[in-house]
Automatic annotation (TrEMBL):
GO terms for biological process: tRNA 5'-leader removal. The lineage of its organism: Archaea, Methanobacteriati, Methanobacteriota, Stenosarchaea group, Halobacteria. Keywords: Endonuclease, Hydrolase, Nuclease, tRNA processing. It is an enzyme of class 3 (hydrolase). It comes from Halogranum amylolyticum. GO terms for molecular function: ribonuclease P activity. RNA-free RNase P that catalyzes the removal of the 5'-leader sequence from pre-tRNA to produce the mature 5'-terminus. Coiled coil: none annotated. It catalyses: Endonucleolytic cleavage of RNA, removing 5'-extranucleotides from tRNA precursor. This is RNA-free ribonuclease P.
């Protein structure tokens, strides 16, 4: 095979495979993932475009696919065409400014989380421990606690790196000078800070298809 001049690398997040945004009409999760992996395979064979995934993200993804009863053949195809690679955490450097901003942001989020908790405590003080009309099994205090959990989670976690999987994704992309493909807005925000190329997962299948069509007129969508 003649080596193709177009070479790109992408690091894929779990959300690329799970999101409903990559599905075509009447397509279920399994069919969408299968079609995406077919595109990844063709892009590798015809254009030498490589897709990577950190092992931590791979484990998270395969657990999600198994929970959704995705066929083992799809997992086998994933293992064939998406390269698992640990990021080199000892060699990849991160600017001190990024670490400083991360610490500053987490400090601010902790303070905001405390304010959310304080607001919930005040609601409890004003509540009576009686059942709600629409939920006989839930008291006013139960409702306050439920709301607190949701708001606290949103305040502290949305838009921030909150797992080793997210961090592995960014470090590997930086190591490989690869584009990040994700639906996670927090990862996208940090990819910008890391100076990384990024693409929303919903746009990735179409991008690969356009590359294939542009380089070989005989390639048609499958």
């Amino acid at each position: 095979m003649v080596e193709h001049p177009l070479k790109q690398r992408f690091v894929l997040d779990t959300s690329v495979f799970i999101t409903e945004e990559i599905r075509e009409d009447d397509e279920d999760l399994e069919a969408a993932v299968d079609r995406l992996l077919d595109l990844v395979a063709r892009a590798k064979l015809e254009l030498n475009i490589s897709c990577y995934i950190p092992p931590s993200v791979y484990e998270e993804l395969t657990e999600m696919l198994a929970d959704r009863d995705v066929d083992d053949e799809i997992i086998s195809k994933l293992n064939t065409w998406v390269i698992k690679k640990n990021p080199d955490r000892f060699e990849v450097s991160i600017p001190a400014e990024i670490v400083f901003r991360f610490i500053d942001e987490m400090s601010d989020r902790v303070n905001r989380g405390l304010r959310v908790s304080e607001k919930a405590v005040r609601k409890v003080e004003d509540s009576r421990d009686k059942p709600l009309d629409e939920h006989e099994y839930m008291t006013e205090i139960d409702k306050v606690i439920s709301d607190l959990r949701q708001e606290y989670r949103t305040t502290l976690r949305r838009g921030v790196l909150d797992s080793r999987e997210d961090f592995d994704l960014l470090i590997l992309a930086r190591e490989l000078d690869a584009g990040v493909v994700t639906e996670d807005t927090g990862i996208i925000a940090w990819a910008e800070d890391f100076g990384l190329r990024y693409l929303k997962g919903r746009d990735f299948p179409a991008l690969l298809q356009k590359y294939l069509e542009a380089t070989d007129g005989t390639n048609t969508p499958r």
